[in-house]
Amino acid sequence: MILQTLAAYYKFLVLQEKLDRPGWNKVKVSFALGLDENGNLIRIHSLREERELEKKRVLMPREMTVPAPAKRTVGIKANFLCDNSSYFLGIDSKGKPERALSCFQAAKELHLSLMNNIETPCAIGVRRFFEQWAPQNAVERLKNDPYYEEILQGGNLVFMVGDSFPQKDPLIESAWQSAYDGVSEEEKGELDRCLITGEATIPEKIHPSVKGIPGAQSSGAALVSFNAPSFCSYGKEQNLNAPVGKQAAFAYTTALNYLIADRDHRKLFGDTTVVYWADTGETEYQDAFSALLDCAGKGLTDRDLSDAMQKLSQGLAINWEGNMLNPDRPFYVLGISPNAARLSVRFFLQNSFGEIVQHLQQHAERMEIVPDRKTDYRMIPLWRLVKATVNEKSKDMMPPPKMTGETLRAILTGGRYPATLFNQVQLRIKADRELAWERMAIVKAYLLRNSTDERIKEGLTVQLNNQTTYQPYLLGRLFAVLEAIQEKANPGINATIKDKYFTSACATPNVVFPILLNLKDKHLKKLDGGIRVYYDRQVSELMGQLTEDYPAHLSLQDQGVFQIGYYHQKQKRFEKKNQEEA
């Protein structure tokens, strides 16, 4: 289904002239070998363009449409009209001159065979260049060229005959298309049913590479790949185990590469690259989805985003920057992660745009909790949620990959959050003793969605709930009041009871709370009358609602409720303090 959806998306992109037809790819090109009509190398042209990158002006390769490059492994395989210095000049910086000569010979044979009967200036120029170029003399010929060192680093080269690029010559273009659409000797084989189109075709043994996935090989990785006997069956080798025709393989990989290259509509969560698209290719759906994932958009407030989610969730069309968004539009979200030379699919979701947005809205509602004084935003973006599960002081800020993928899937499908998300947050709370807003929002959302005990959910409100008598919640509130008493009695204290006792109080209340209440009595003696009475009354009210003995142990879920109670009570204290200061 993933391949079929991508292949269908490719067709829409071709119709909209956003992608080239089969056999052609957009490739980053750095230099052009300038030839005259006799094939003599006159000069090397830089095709790089100056662009702004990280607030600096840098030279970047130009994107050009050229004949589709071949899928390379360890063997030698030449590309037509666009390749590196090994294939076009017979030299490189890898210290393997014999291999570079073999690469040049392969390129020479390819270009002479495809342009043998074409008598245009571009074809004659390129043909004569390969006939007369001597790789053994290339270093001596080019070593004084200002671009020599850069060319050896492996950037793509094209030809330029006079002022013309050969790939734009109609006859050369036609010759390449015929060669690409035809079946070479090495591609010949038995007909099989294409899994994407359903047509009888000769399957493509090696599919084009998918490029641009962080952590994967820079030369590209495979979404479909069989490279060992244990993965194969019925005597079929390589991708013949999953038969896909050449055109269909080109279509799905080209569409996926297009999505990955679109930085405005691509997200990275941990090691998972997430791409998303509407079935007919309208970018406004991608724009809206990006803004809702990030909880931010150009000129948009939290209110704007909340209203948009609310209307789409109700099945209402909305105006997004002058374009109407239909909640019934089919929408797709694909999460992929690197795995050596291959790609792992973390998740693939297909649903109406409105349904996916509705799940985002439900997640946002579950996550809503009174913010602490440190935050400068009101809606928690997904990147911030994932970041809250790791130690921000660590050099390795990568969250567990499996947890990230499972969390995103749960959010976008409305499913149960993975237990690893809750466990990871609990580990960070116990290690850092930091109950940050994002972490408390995760605890609240997890318990609301995953717990089946309705009593647990009584305290899982946005703000302090004075009505619930659920014991773990009350114990968390009581701990916050005891900490406040200590801070009031010892102004400027560096470490409070939270630093020493919080983790133990969560897990084994019957061991810790008698100690804390004894400390409370000593702290109250330091306070003046009115303040002492105020805090003593708070403690008495909470103690009066505790109808059971202190539990010997709290389950992990009840520890989360304890933390929410503590957090609510503490934020209520800060709220009162801010009101008094105002």
How would you describe this protein?
There is one protein chain. The chain is of the alpha+beta class and 582 residues long. Among the domains are: 20-182, no CATH class; 471-581, no CATH class. The chain has 20 helices and 16 strands. The protein has helices spanning 2-15, 85-88, 97-114, 121-132, 138-142, 148-151, 170-181, 246-261, 283-294, 302-313, 353-367, 382-387, 401-413, 419-432, 437-450, 471-489, 497-507, 509-524, 529-545, 556-581, and strands at residues 24-29, 31-35, 41-46, 49-53, 56-60, 62-67, 82-83, 157-161, 192-193, 200-201, 266-269, 272-278, 318-320, 323-325, 330-339, 342-352. A four-stranded mixed beta sheet has the order 3-2-8-7. A four-stranded antiparallel beta sheet has the order 11-12-15-16, with helices on both faces. Strands 1-6 form a two-stranded antiparallel ribbon. The protein is elongated and about 105 Å long. The relative contact order is 0.07.
